[in-house]
Amino acid sequence: MRTFLTSAVFILSFIFFECSILSNVFFLPVVPDLLLLFTIYISIQKGCLQGETVGFFSGLILDFVSAAPLGLNALLRTIIGFIAGLFHLTVGTSGIITPMVLGVFGTFTKVLFTYFISFFFPGVVLTYDFFSKIFLFECIFNGLLAPVMFFVFSKFQSIAHMEVSTISELRK
After folding, report:
1. How far apart are CA 105 and CA 144, in angstroms?
2. For residues 10 and 13, what is the distance between their CA atoms, to the nearest angstrom?
3. 24: how many CB neighbours lie within 10 A of its CB?
4. What pLDDT sits at residue 96?
5. pLDDT band at 6; cut points 50, 70, 90
6. Which residues lie closer than 8 Å to 8 by C-beta, 6 or more apart?
């Protein structure tokens, strides 16, 4: 239950931050995808089921607040949550290089599946160009933010796993 509530708070916070604040910063060429990084982290730490769940709900909420077709982000993030969940506890999320690779790989996977879905809905789904500045900047931003975000997520995960007696001892 704590994981669900913590995930819900992170999802809503990131959606608010991405849509309200980062999208209005004029000097950013793209908005970093914090929800994607959160989905990848949860998938690797908790497995496919929780990764898919976080991916679906974060994508569904993102579909409601964005101009994307309803269900597109939910589908993309569910697939990414499943794929990242296949590496449950086999890939470490600490350090710098591994989270950077995961952030870039997650962005590349999102763009690849968006491109694939656009074949079925050619006039509806907007795709990235693999050789565009937008794709390059999003990969760079997600890659650079991933180690920082994974570190923050790990601190919240360690707080969530503290026992009640440990928390009451800390208050003294």
Report:
1. 12
2. 5
3. 9
4. 92
5. confident
6. 57
